[in-house]
From TrEMBL:
Any one biological process term the GO annotation gives: methylation
Gene3D superfamilies referenced in this protein's UniProt entry, alphabetically: Vaccinia Virus protein VP39 (3.40.50.150)
Keywords (A to Z) from UniProt: Methyltransferase, Transferase
Name recorded for this polypeptide: Methyltransferase family protein
Family matches, as PANTHER family: METHYLTRANSFERASE DOMAIN-CONTAINING PROTEIN, METHYLTRANSFERASE TYPE 11
Domain named Methyltransferase: residues: 174-285
Domain of life assignment: Bacteria
Origin species: Isoptericola halotolerans
A UniProt-annotated Pfam family: Methyltransf_31
One of the record's GO molecular function terms: methyltransferase activity
InterPro entries, per database record: Methyltranfer_dom, SAM-binding_MTase, SAM-dependent_MTases_sf
SUPFAM superfamilies per record: S-adenosyl-L-methionine-dependent methyltransferases
Amino acid sequence: METTPPLADRVFETGVAMMEGLAVYLGDRLGWYRELAASGPLVPAELAARTHTHHRYALEWCEQQAAAGFLTAHDATGDGGERRYGLDAEGVAVFTDIRSTDFLAPFVRLVAASAIQLPALLEAYREGGGVSWQQLGDDARTGQADMNRPWFEQVLPGELAGAPHLHAALGRPGAAVADVGCGYGWSTIALARAYPEARVVGIDIDGPSVERARAHAADAGIENVEMVHSAGEEIEGGPYDVVFLFECLHDMPYPVEVLTAVRRSLADGGTVVVMDEAAADELTAPADLVQRALYGFSVLCCLPDSLSHPDSVGTGTVIRRDVVERYAREAGFGRVDELPIEDFGFWRFYELR
């Protein structure tokens, strides 16, 4: 009997995983996961009624999710009873819990944002140019923001407290702190909450993101924070004691210009912290799952966004250590150290002096 080659198996599994991922997107955007987390197991008709969606689609989705192992299936009870579907504790964390670092529905949302733009990506790959963050839209914005939020809220303050010189600089009364590339503001808000005597300024080039960041800060009741709509090449409000760039340097079309502006915005003795992808120092083939994920983001999202700007350097998601060091040197920094922060998502922390 002829056996299927392993590569064919992998590609088939990839296709199935793509379909399952898009089904996760449906459950996330339609509110089905959130309703199941709030209500417990439901029959599909109840799920559809509570979310104002169509019963037949809810039935098919529930069965598909159970087949994929994402939902639990409970046997029907009584004559003519229907099977109920629910989420176990792990499923609640992965699909609905905005406080959990296992919250990965936004990961799928970000991938789906790129999938929707496949015709534009094909054109960019053929003709040059790119697909901008604006084209990717709110699914990309919220996907990245919601995926990173629990890391900033739950993990970042403790890690910074474990770096004594940074903790002291941030905790000084009147300390001036900038968060360049703040997106929806969750990192800025986390810094402001952890260091209430500091003045924290979030800066981002994307207008809709800044509007949401301002709303998030207001909702949180954070008063020592300001959100500014500005390009990273124009750092206002300094001099700053500490400037952060969280997972954005690799996206920037002009990273050296941004780092140069950041350096010029520093107070005497100020420091810069860059958190970016923990890319391997060189390509390995085949690579581990993290490196494959970074390349996936790069070909579908980050590189096309960067190349949508004229004369972009086109870094891409796979920003290796030597690239960060080169950009820092070209921007006038004399030293780049890696901070001892480990097991922080896909990311690595650099300190530029």
